[in-house]
Design brief:
homodimer, alpha/beta, 4-stranded antiparallel β-sheet, 13 helices
Chain lengths: 408, 408
């Protein structure tokens, strides 16, 4: 008698993006022929760059010749790509890792969701509030919550990020086992400095907790003094897993390629030294068959000097958009966070409007779609996330429309 | 205090392929300069075909232009590809499915491993013996076994496939909840007819069980009378999930693309109608971000008339290899199964040798690597699996070498 996994049934319905889509569609039906400008989803819009595209074309040519064709690759990823990532971390961040610490995947979302499977279902989970919903949802499926209480999930520890703490929460007041952190933060755009992150690493070492550090936006950091990889912090190799991706710097949101760093030196209470690393290897070998070899060829090119230059160009472009959005919104009196060292602007709703009220206002009057902050957790209420992913001309139009209607 | 998932610790070490690699490497070190011929892993060797390669090149060109670039696709897969699969099932198999029943993935292995997450950890699992190890391992991680007993996992029901039942096991004698079936079978090469599979579907409907049907080798069926998709059987849409892939017909083992069919009409005891379908959708939206858009463009081309023709050429090639292997081994008195309607030859070890003894013999004397049948489960003891994936010239050399040394 087949019974579905009750933990899946505990998941509250995926409310945010379907609801945005529903309201946008309804508006379009009422306003036929009007164009909507979308600054909602963090979806890249600019072309794959020439050096990276060429590497993928070349890979297809190799696959099209039986003398150079290759089938299954290593589940952990191509050796050359793992080595290139290790070298990149050394050169760019001054951090020493082993190439075998890097596991190539089809993207940061998969890793962010799957990583919890490594841990006991009894683990107490801490997440930033607001946060990317995947951390919470995957741990609900992993059986670590006792249910949704209408606002958030019972059993999880929510670390509130607000304007008072500069969107950098304090370490948990109680004992937790897994801590999800994301910097530059999605959705608030906050970046973390060494002293702030060191408190989390020290907490984790002291409490034998594991930090899952999502660094998917790290290439957007352009100011000094902020952490670009958690392994810049002493002791992190014993307590932190880092997740990253080629989505937001090389434009691989659809091509799909990411990596997780699961150092052999990670410590767990059961299973002995190296267990977390060894089990992630086993997990990937059992549940995964490697990322697409074409995408991996593109990723390798993205790490070359020429590729890095091209990626920097893409990130510069989106940061330029972010600057336009931030300055535009501030010019009409909105309080904004992020938008520097980050592609996201976290804007306070004016006049005490709720996130959804301001969403409706912007859609109705400016014809611009943003993301209601409350969709990222209760502490996001009263904010909207404005994404800088878009063509420059659309960004300018959207900002002008917002300015016009907030001035009204 | 981070504790790892105890279910992962219950997994017996992945013995088979590492042990093959270890013995092969040791032999090569003792026999410097000698070439080993590999008929072990089921890994494709022939080039991606022109029409499919062109579609992937074209997709990269579209991604390289900001006016045609696309980022995130739907987690469930591109609409056009899902429709093309639905049309293909209708035209090729006379089966009616909805396009929304198809979920595009990065390959059959991921789906085969992840699908168990949908079900309660209390489910009793039946697997064929021998079987592809992922079904068993993923359910161990899912908490459905009480431990490895040295031969197999306690708590699972093993359906023995042997020469007496033609490698088609009978339905379980007891009540089970999840049944994994694979036809054409890996490793035995057996194919199933309608009457035989109908018994399983009837069993599942009667016992409210779910069948997970792995049809990854279905394109190798060339003789009439065998089932190509489980949905040919009446009632299967209420009790069966099917998994398939572009790996073995389009050569996408490294490119990565597959699909699962999870019909809305599937029934479970809890959660109400449509729950399994709805939860798989939610699972894919939470744990996955879609297959690579380049691979999906290739998959769409593979389903076109021209693409199907090219894939048929690839499958013909491997079936030609299988025929050479089967006839060659039979000519020196070995008893062989499979190798027709399947890329795998399941060969009885001569003279009462064990699987590993015969493996060692073939490596030592013929310099050929095969896969010991015992690695697929206890009922595989006394057999080796010979794979037809290889260049024709290597297959011929390997078969001649085997013939020569078995004649000795």
């Amino acid at each position: 008698m087949a019974l579905v996994n009750e933990n899946f049934l505990s998941l509250a319905s995926g409310y945010l993006f379907p609801e945005i889509a529903r309201r946008t569609k309804a508006w379009q039906e009422r306003n036929l022929g009007e164009k909507v400008l979308r600054l909602g989803i963090g979806n890249t819009t600019e072309a794959i760059t020439p050096h990276i595209a060429k590497a993928m074309h070349d890979k297809i040519d190799l696959l099209s010749d039986r003398t150079t064709y290759t089938g299954y690759g290593d589940e952990q990823g191509d050796t050359a790509l793992r080595k290139a990532l290790r070298d990149f971390y050394h050169k760019q961040y001054g951090v020493e890792l082993e190439d075998t610490d890097f596991f190539i995947s089809d993207g940061a979302k998969s890793d962010a969701a799957n990583i919890q499977e490594l841990f006991s279902s009894s683990m107490i989970v801490a997440v930033q509030d607001p946060a990317y919903p995947v951390y919470v949802d995957s741990n609900v499926v992993g059986g670590r919550s006792t249910g949704f209480n209408g606002t958030n999930y019972d059993g999880f520890v929510y670390l509130e990020s607000n304007s008072e703490n500069g969107f950098i929460p304090d370490v948990p007041a109680q004992k937790v086992d897994l801590i999800y952190l994301c910097f530059p933060n999605n959705p608030t755009g906050a970046v973390i400095n060494h002293a702030q992150l060191k408190k989390f690493v020290d907490y984790a070492l002291e409490n034998k907790a594991i930090i899952i550090y999502d660094a998917a936006y790290t290439d957007y950091i352009r100011e000094p003094g902020y952490v670009r990889t958690i392994y810049e912090i002493e002791g992190a190799k014993r307590c932190a897993i880092e997740i990253n991706s080629f989505s937001k710097n090389a434009g691989f949101t659809g091509v799909r390629l990411g990596w997780a760093i699961v150092p052999e030196s990670l410590e767990s209470e059961n299973g002995g030294p190296g267990t977390i690393h060894r089990l992630w290897n086993r997990r990937q070998c059992t549940f995964f068959n490697g990322a697409s070899n074409i995408a991996q060829a593109g990723g390798l090119a993205a790490l070359s000097e020429k590729g890095r230059e091209e990626c920097k160009g893409l990130v510069d472009y989106y940061l330029g958009n972010a600057d336009i959005i931030k300055k535009g919104l501030e010019s009409v009196g909105l309080t904004c966070y992020g938008g520097v060292n980050s592609p996201y602007i976290w804007a306070r709703c004016p006049c005490g409007l709720s996130s959804w009220d301001f969403f409706d206002f912007l859609l109705e009057h400016a014809h611009v779609v943003v993301t209601p902050g409350s969709g990222f957790g209760p502490a996001g209420e009263g904010y909207v996330r404005v994404s800088s992913y878009g063509h420059r001309e659309d960004i300018i139009k959207a900002v002008e429309a917002i300015k016009e209607h907030i001035n009204d």
